[in-house]
Amino acid sequence: MAMDSTKYLSVQSLTKYIKYKFEKDPYLQRVFLKGELSNVKHHTNGHIYFSVKDDQSVISAVMFRYDADKLNFKPEEGQNVLLAGNITLYERRGQYQIYVKEMQIDGIGQLFLKLEENKELLKIKGYLKTEHKKPLPAFPEHIAIVSSTTSAAIKDMITTLSRRYPLVKVTTLNTYVQGGRSKDSVIDNLKRADALKADTVILARGGGSIEDLWTFNELEVALAVFNMKTPIVTGVGHETDITLVDYVSDLRAPTPTAAAEQAVPNIKDLNTRLGELHRQLDNLTLSRISNSRQMLDNLSNYYKFKNPNLLYTEQTERLRDLSSTLDNFMSQELLNFRHRLDKYMSALAYNNPAPDIQKYQSELKRTSGDLNRQMKMMISQKVERLAANINVLESVSPVQILKRGYSYTTFNNKIVTDAKNLNVGDVIETSFNSGTVSAKVTEVNTDDEI
Fold this sequence. Notes:
Blueprint lengths: L10 H14 L6 E12 L5 E6 L4 E6 L1 H4 L11 E11 L4 E11 L2 H17 L17 E6 L4 H13 L4 E6 L7 H14 L4 E6 L13 H8 L5 E5 L7 H5 L2 E2 L3 H8 L3 H34 L2 H4 L1 H43 L3 H42 L2 H6 L4 E4 L2 E2 L11 E5 L4 E5 L10
Parallel strand pairs: 3-5, 6-7, 6-8, 8-9, 9-10
Antiparallel strand pairs: 1-2, 1-4, 2-3, 4-5, 11-12, 11-13, 13-14
Helix pairs in contact: 4-8, 5-6
């Protein structure tokens, strides 16, 4: 009998219907999921494709670039994560999957991520460089231990220190190494230990989970270790446990007991070494005594020591040779000096400036005499010329004319040279060689009338 095909759905129709159910179910629109990442693929477009699994099941997942850019870590294979997103159906494969909106490391993984962040921060600041590591003293006299005094670890450390190096003084500072008060307790006791001026400080605790050891991964605790002025050894947990303080301490030990061993020498080794050095010193001393005795025997058998006059004679001849050599040398040097002196005296006599000085003095004296004679002659000529000029001046002087009986007349302080310039009644003044006369004009006669 033929089947009614209208009852049957296509694969696409069924897939769409199931997808519709997924998208309309409010419980699938905000799903919180935890599991392990697998098949992680970072696409070049920024999307991340992966699967999330547990011991029984697996689900495909995708995180689009917009949400992936908000992550503060890189998803990798095997990470345990906490996810939030919505469930949908991929129609082409008919496979349901989760669109992840949020992702974070789950539990312990988150702690490891925080540890790596703190480590990277210290690395950027340069705190992990070996140049900051302080050397441990070879023979410490005082060691301070920062740990819990009730723990088995501190008892093992004290026993180890007493056994290996009983000379050292040990001071214990009871410290909370786990729990809410542990961070401040460790930091405070590190400061107290630094103030003790001990030779070495040991920071230690026994093994545990990463949560138990987390105090030693705190950034503030690591900075307190880095800022210690006293050399510090860290021994936290077991050999596989590496905490943040191990990176900044001066020496990292795998366990608390190993920290105690590395902080002090082994007295048995020291005694063994001292025994070896003692034997070496004895052998060296005996060898030097034997060599010295042999040298003394050789010298005592030396023929010159058996006849000391040989030593005296040889040295006397040596002294005589040296004296002769010195005398010859001094005589030759003295002769050379005299030759040089005679040479310098001859050169000085040849270049003696005395004759030139005498010559120039004679020329200066002769020139000075000529100059004096010329000056006297010139002065005499000047005097005679001056006297002649004076006689000429006196011959034309008005005073001399007045002395010969002449006079001159003035009117209004002006010399009268022409009668025409005067009028009857003018008062005139006539000057003689001695004295003046004032007169009043009563008559004016011109030349034409004379």
